[in-house]
Amino acid sequence: MKNLSLLFLFLEAILIFPNLNCRRYKPLKMETDYTKEGMIPVQGTSLHYLQWGEGGKALVILHGLGDSPYIFSHLAREWSSRFKVNAFARRGHGRSGSPDSGYDNQMLTNDLKSLVDHLQLDRVFLLGWSMGGNEITEFAIRYPERTAGLIYLEAGYDYSEPAFASILDQFPEALSPGPSDLVSLDAYRQWYHRFWYPDLDWNEVLESNLKACTRVLENGAVEIIPGEKITNLLVRSLTAYPRDYSKITAPVLALYTPVFFKHHSADPNLQKAYEDLENKIISPWRESNKEKLKKALKEVHIHELSMGGHASVLFASQDSVLKLVNDFVAAH
Considering the domain boundaries, does residue 177 fall inside one? Predict the structure, then answer.
């Protein structure tokens, strides 16, 4: 139970829902640099999606836990000259509906299939970042005839393994924003930037993603999307089963960063704790997951990126990600 509780803290670090009575929200301005947006009905709820571009091969992008399709805006704009790019908010996230149930990987994959069908996409390339790797794996196993290729972007991890629980046991800092970090959007932005993206300058894409993943009450305080109940359901699904890639027949591109977590502290003791965690536990766990992909998959291309961490890879290694994905899709 200790590991499970720590896991909830780890994955709720940007998802904690303060217990506030006021439920009136201030509207937040979002970027509109996309070709199309809409809502798609799925079982028990609806999904918010964005599209960039109108022609070429279809690329569907899945975000991580607690994020939104806006996090891919800068990449999607570049890909839109080559592909028809589609991204959506998983149920319980962003502007999608938040039903009380349906957060296991089987239902989340059903949602992905419903989106692909609704948008009339025949064969698709699927890119999953972080948690997004789970749905694309299951989709490829169920629907090989609809899967042109998979791209694991800092994904392809088995979160059910004991090593991941050890990471949580030994994490050097508190993983959640404190009450003072949730009193305003500015306060939360500062915490979010410092904790998750310390190696980046703040930018319009992070701002749009932050706004899609928060509600600001009339008193200025922040609620985080998804809430605690939905987060717990997602975490249980995320850690409940070992990954099996052996049934995947589609080609796979797997992209990994040089380190998993980019820490922000200037405290030498804290720096040492982060380095020890990375070197002794995280790195061996990541390497074992890469080996699992190599052994199980029929065609896999693994690339080590030179910059960024698990979160900042979307920006720090932007040029490399764009080129590697372009080349992979063109070749298949």
Answer: no
Answer yes or no: is 306 within a domain. yes
**Between 242 and 7, residue with greater pLDDT:** 242
* CA–CA distance, 10 with 188 (Å, rounded to integer): 17
CB 203 within 8 A of CB 44: no
CA-CA-CA-CA torsion sign (229, 205, 115, 28): positive
311, part of any domain: yes
Number of structural domains (the chain) is 1
Mean of pLDDT over the chain: 90
**Beta strand pairing call for 58-62 and 45-52:** unpaired
* Domain boundaries, position 63: 32-171+228-331
User: Considering the domain boundaries, does residue 219 fall inside one?
Assistant: no
Contact (CB, 8 A) for 128 and 69? no
Cβ burial 123-145 (10 Å sphere, 16+ → b, else e): ebbbbbbbbbbbbbbbbbbebee
Predicted structure pTM score: 0.90
Rounded to 5 degrees, φ, ψ at 214 are: -140, 155
What CATH number is given to the structural domain containing 262?
3.40.50.1820
How do beta strands 124-129 and 58-62 pair?
parallel
**Which range is least confidently modeled, 12-16, 45-49, 244-248?**
12-16
What residues contact 27, with CB distance under 8 A and at least 6 apart? none
